[in-house]
Amino acid sequence: MKKIGVFTSGGDAPGMNAAIRAVVRTAIYKEVEVVGILRGYNGMIAGNFIPLQSHSVSNIIQRGGTILKSARSKEFMTYEGRKKAFEQLQKAGIEGLIAIGGDGTFTGAKVFYEEFGIPTVGIPGTIDNDLYGTDYTIGYDTAINTALDAIDKIRDTADSHDRLFFIEVMGRDSGYIAIACGIAGGAELVMVPETLTTIEEVVQTINQGWKRSKTSSIVVVAEGDEEGNVHEIAAKVAARLEGKYDIRVSTLGHIQRGGSPTARDRILASRLGVAAVEALLAGKQNIMIGVVNDEITHVPFEDAIYKEKPIRQEFIELVRILSI
Amino acid sequence: MKKIGVFTSGGDAPGMNAAIRAVVRTAIYKEVEVVGILRGYNGMIAGNFIPLQSHSVSNIIQRGGTILKSARSKEFMTYEGRKKAFEQLQKAGIEGLIAIGGDGTFTGAKVFYEEFGIPTVGIPGTIDNDLYGTDYTIGYDTAINTALDAIDKIRDTADSHDRLFFIEVMGRDSGYIAIACGIAGGAELVMVPETLTTIEEVVQTINQGWKRSKTSSIVVVAEGDEEGNVHEIAAKVAARLEGKYDIRVSTLGHIQRGGSPTARDRILASRLGVAAVEALLAGKQNIMIGVVNDEITHVPFEDAIYKEKPIRQEFIELVRILSI
Amino acid sequence: MKKIGVFTSGGDAPGMNAAIRAVVRTAIYKEVEVVGILRGYNGMIAGNFIPLQSHSVSNIIQRGGTILKSARSKEFMTYEGRKKAFEQLQKAGIEGLIAIGGDGTFTGAKVFYEEFGIPTVGIPGTIDNDLYGTDYTIGYDTAINTALDAIDKIRDTADSHDRLFFIEVMGRDSGYIAIACGIAGGAELVMVPETLTTIEEVVQTINQGWKRSKTSSIVVVAEGDEEGNVHEIAAKVAARLEGKYDIRVSTLGHIQRGGSPTARDRILASRLGVAAVEALLAGKQNIMIGVVNDEITHVPFEDAIYKEKPIRQEFIELVRILSI
Amino acid sequence: MKKIGVFTSGGDAPGMNAAIRAVVRTAIYKEVEVVGILRGYNGMIAGNFIPLQSHSVSNIIQRGGTILKSARSKEFMTYEGRKKAFEQLQKAGIEGLIAIGGDGTFTGAKVFYEEFGIPTVGIPGTIDNDLYGTDYTIGYDTAINTALDAIDKIRDTADSHDRLFFIEVMGRDSGYIAIACGIAGGAELVMVPETLTTIEEVVQTINQGWKRSKTSSIVVVAEGDEEGNVHEIAAKVAARLEGKYDIRVSTLGHIQRGGSPTARDRILASRLGVAAVEALLAGKQNIMIGVVNDEITHVPFEDAIYKEKPIRQEFIELVRILSI
């Protein structure tokens, strides 16, 4: 393999730039040419390629976002779109791909390989940490620290006013961010999509806490909780608490995707980037590089996409004990 | 005066603890006893007083929120409530008050003085910076830096996805936070209650920016803008832009009230706290301590509450030039 | 067991408060009385005990330092000192101990148990991450992020002035902090006690980087490197580089011990705190609670203290590839 | 004037990029061509000029350092050097200059104007805040917040170990950073070059504090204090305190120059940048743009360089009262 391409796709995550840097420098170290593909699959279809040298990725390890930009591509979901992409890669002499993204990204890469034989190795870049086959995804550690910093700030005002706060964090299908923020933020309760928490339980927990002379409380809610969105949940709880507490809602939103990556995310991204290039050059394809028990693993795209990665139920219990 | 009380009231603001510390230590330095009144006027009515020593305020200068807690009191709005408060103060031997808060707090103090003759000196503590008679209020500098940090994070993701973001910051009646964040955050446009910005202007500015090959844009909106809340504004703009851009909305919310105060807020709070005790002991009442052109001022409560403090129109213009 | 004591000892680490909170609340949850021992073994000898309730540890999870204070005790190294400590514990009815600290702390606990039979369970709290039997120690994740934030700031000025910076991070006997900061900070080179890096190699790496048109460089040095302290190393390198580069030195120092703990450190501390109380109540003694491959482990004090925990040599290689 | 140049010179300061952005965009807004001169006067002599467009300064407002790089130039101190610089400017058609830097930078600009008639307008960019004619310089607000954050972290460990810390902050000739950090950091004492503080006074203050049951203390020392550097001061104090306290020293160093600028520094830099271009185009030269009482001022270089800007003595007193 003489020339490879690298791109970011789907929702951006802090640490993607650190991964791009690692990919580029490892390729150069291995004496392979490396090209950046802009805006994910859209840029592949359009032939938006830029040559990358070592200095192209200087001073980006600490930056949020992605210098290659990202997008979700509808055109790549069609055969026609993928054909165009293949032709662009051929024209540019790109023989292999490194895809940084989540399950949508890898689904596209898998189909693309099956149709056109372009080998792709994936790097898990998503704040949600919901990909099977890797203990951590790039961006997760930064996202939980960003959310936690926000929760700490909200606790200041919750505590000053004896309030009950419902705080929504990201995680449409997964409670990874919520559970980490709940434990680390000293929440009374965490509500996640994976586990049923009834309004009744919320009301009881709150009431018990205040009986033990708590004066402020925080409930962390994942966006995808089965009881509804955070405003609906807060309204239901408020109805049951009959005005006893001053209840507020805060949705953390897009700040969770940005910011300078943490040490962990940069190290993870660096390791995955090196390993991805090594795997691609060693003839691997259709796999995602992961980290399990701190060792590099190769996970078939199929597993990464379709297998479940459950959250630890003991962590839900941990919140309960520690909010006593 | 042998004994004074200090309390925080209304919305909390970062730096209130630094002000409490300064009040307590200055009182002790002047050999006056000082008592903390918990939860604002509610605690005054209930007689929730705690004696404060020098070490009571150790290690709090860096903390958000208020160790004396805060509240809005409905009972203090009645004559009966104020009478109870007066009796509690008399019983405890408290002869003067330092009130840390905003215009609601000072309105209460003014009436209270007129009815019961308890002298009060006010310290402006509110993130909104909308009090006449002081260039800055405690908490404003921290709030704009917190909001700015969030905007920086959102810019990472806006830029990675070529998005147009509408970001709502606090300021129900005032654009102080919005205008500062707009300039410092490199926004295309700022929408504040004090100035009319039509949807038409927003659409034009966005379109012009993208013609000049901008790929992402940020519009900062104060909560009290006359065009509606941030979701309504974004929807109106989206309707006019006909799907050309990927538009998102983010409401920063309560994080803006919390966090460790900045250097400026701590210094401001320290200076105001010292000056407030000095003024009270010198026989002043019904005044707020302010800082104008970096010098301490005494402002009658009446002025602080009722006079207008306009934002600088040149700053709106500044955003326009710098987003070219 | 009806009553247990908890204390922090040795160098403080961010997250110790989160561990104290977890210990206290788990004990209460298990209906066991819990007492805080102030200033480590010194406070045990002096009988400085304070009863702890659930609310005693409210709102501390996010705070650096330790509310129980810490110290190194010379008196506890003598039999006489330990005897006094034992008598104080007996008088207070304390039947078991949770010790939060590093190898010095656990050495003391081990001897104490052998002489007086007081069962102790240890929690690894040290920023150095050099304890065998646990993948991570409390404080390490925060320390590397604090150091990284400083390195990011120094890179700003290094880059603006085309400078070569030698940055010393903590780690007297261990390169854990240095290696993590080196990878995450995009350093050219990392110098750690565990591996020999000659001045010659440093000079070569720097020269090669600058030939490839690098204009600024960072070398991360652990305090305990065998080539001397950071000033000596910088001077030796400067002598060899013959004034070609503008060389500066920065020692990060004590900031690495402070600050609000990261999400990871709070979660780790919470898990370890719960598991420590459970182990003590289950009759365990002379063990440290650790986390290996994300699962709780019980490690004999002897192993934790005496066994080696090597750093990953591949990480040294990683720095070399990525600084190309 | 059809074409102007902008450069940064001397020590870098956070917010310089925000100033560059404002200069570039204002020039474009006024339909004047703008060129970036790399590495200060050295780049002027070497003719290292780069054309700047609006997008050249996109997404830099939040970055520390300077995209134009900075240097101190020995060659520009010679007539020969300045002549070369003049010839390069002539060749490039650059008719006026915006210089971002401190007194060394303005001294050079003044001489250059006198010899070659190139009009220059200066923007005060230095963390030290020691330039006459402006209340604040770009970078000062960020530097004090960075130093304060470090002091907060050190207080965590000082407090956990009952230590006395001497912390050195930047300010070779000026105590501006030290005094701000001293007030905001809750220091016992601040030692600045402008005021004599004897070792005797330090010893007394420390002893008095500990008599009032303080258990930890912080003394902030400016690098240029007349009693020597922070290590010498700490040693002298230690000798007098006869081992009563556990004394440590920390030098904050270069981190104070880096980091993302605060809201204030970005707003200040933006205002100064706009005003500088307006002044240059209006035919002004040999002046620095400043801000006094929140209004833009024009200060002759001569005044900015030679006049004294004293620190507020009342602030020294403030520290004394508040550390009671």
From TrEMBL, chains A, B, C, D:
Assigned EC number: 2.7.1.11
Q: What is its main location?
A: cytoplasm
Name the keywords, alphabetized: Allosteric enzyme, ATP-binding, Cytoplasm, Glycolysis, Kinase, Magnesium, Metal-binding, Nucleotide-binding, Transferase
Q: Where does substrate bind?
A: T126, I127, D128, R163, M170, G171, R172, E223, R248, H254, I255, Q256, R257
User: A Pfam family for this UniProt protein?
Assistant: PFK
Enzyme class label: transferase
The known regulators of its activity are described as:
Allosterically activated by ADP and other diphosphonucleosides, and allosterically inhibited by phosphoenolpyruvate.
Output a single Gene Ontology CC term carried by this record: 6-phosphofructokinase complex
State the active site.
D128 (proton acceptor)
Domain Phosphofructokinase, which positions? 3-280
Q: Could you tell me where this protein is found in the cell?
A: Cytoplasm
Instruction: List the InterPro entries hit by this protein, alphabetically.
Output: ATP_PFK, ATP_PFK_prok-type, PFKA_ATP_prok, Phosphofructokinase_CS, Phosphofructokinase_dom, PKF_sf
Q: Name one GO molecular function term.
A: identical protein binding
The residues the record assigns to binding ATP are G11, R72, S73, G102, D103, G104, T105
Matching Gene3D superfamilies: 3.40.50.450, Phosphofructokinase domain
Among its keywords, does the record have Lipid biosynthesis?
no
Where are the membrane-spanning stretches?
none
Q: How does it assemble?
A: Homotetramer.
Classification via NCBIfam families? PFKA_ATP (TIGR02482), PRK03202.1 (NF002872)
- Indicate the family of this protein: Belongs to the phosphofructokinase type A (PFKA) family. ATP-dependent PFK group I subfamily. Prokaryotic clade 'B1' sub-subfamily.
Q: From the Swiss-Prot or TrEMBL record, give the protein name.
A: ATP-dependent 6-phosphofructokinase
State the organism of origin.
Answer: Thermonema lapsum
Name of the encoding gene = pfkA
